[in-house]
Amino acid sequence: MAAAVLFIIWLNISWLIVLVGAHIARYAQYPHLLRRHLDSPQVGQIHDQTLALDVMAAIGRTHYLDEPKWTLEALTAAGWFAGSGRTAPPSTAGGGLIVATNDEPEAYLPARAIETIGLREILDIARARGDESARQAAVQAVVVDLEQAIAENLEGKTLKDLVAADAAAP
C-alpha cells in the first residue's frame, strides 16, 4: 500500500518536472512570448493590427501584381510573426480574408477580390472586438470617439488602395 502511494507521488513530481521544463524550454526559444505578457494589451493590439495590415498588403500585392505567392515560411523569413508558433497568418485567417492553396507548401491568397476587402474590416478582425476594459464612462466615451475617427478615416478605403499605393511607391 505504501509503495503505491510513493509511486503516485513520484509520478506526479516527475510530470511536474517535465511540464516545468517544457515551459522553460519554450520561453528560452521564444522569449518574445514572455515579454508579450508584460506588455499592455493596447500595445499588443496595435501590433496585431499593424501585422494584419502588413500581411494582408503583402498577400494582396502578390495576388494583384501576379507575383510569387506568400507561404508561411516566406512570411516568417521576411520577419513577420517569426517564432510565434502560428500555423497561418494572424487574425485574418479566421476572419475569412485569406485562403490557403492546396499547393505544397501552401500559399496564401485573398479570399475575395481585394477591391471588396475594406481596411476597416481587416482592423476589426485583427482587433477581435469585444474588449471592454475601460470601466470609466469618460474613458469609454474617448474610445467611442476613437472608433468613430477610425471609421471615418477608413471609409471607402480597400486593400486594393493599400496595395496600389505600395506598388506606386519607389
Can you tell me about this structure?
- The chain is mostly helical and 170 residues long.
- It folds into 2 domains: 1-38; 40-168, Orthogonal Bundle (Arc Repressor Mutant, subunit A).
- Helix content is 61%, strand content 5%.
- It has helices at 2-29, 31-38, 41-64, 72-77, 119-127, 137-154, 159-168; strands at 70-71, 98-100, 107-110.
- A 3-stranded antiparallel β-sheet has the order 1-3-2.
- The mean pLDDT is 77.
Task: Name its key features.
170 residues; mainly alpha; Arc Repressor Mutant, subunit A; 2 domains; 3 strands
How are the elements arranged and paired?
Elements: H1 2-29, H2 31-38, H3 41-64, E1 70-71, H4 72-77, E2 98-100, E3 107-110, H5 119-127, H6 137-154, H7 159-168
For the largest sheet, list the strands in their spatial order. 1-3-2
The SSE string, one letter per element, is HHHEHEEHHH
Low-confidence stretches: none
CATH topology of the largest domain: Arc Repressor Mutant, subunit A
The number of distinct β-strands equals 3
Amino- and carboxy-terminal Cα gap: 78 Å
Supply the CATH class of the largest domain.
Mainly Alpha
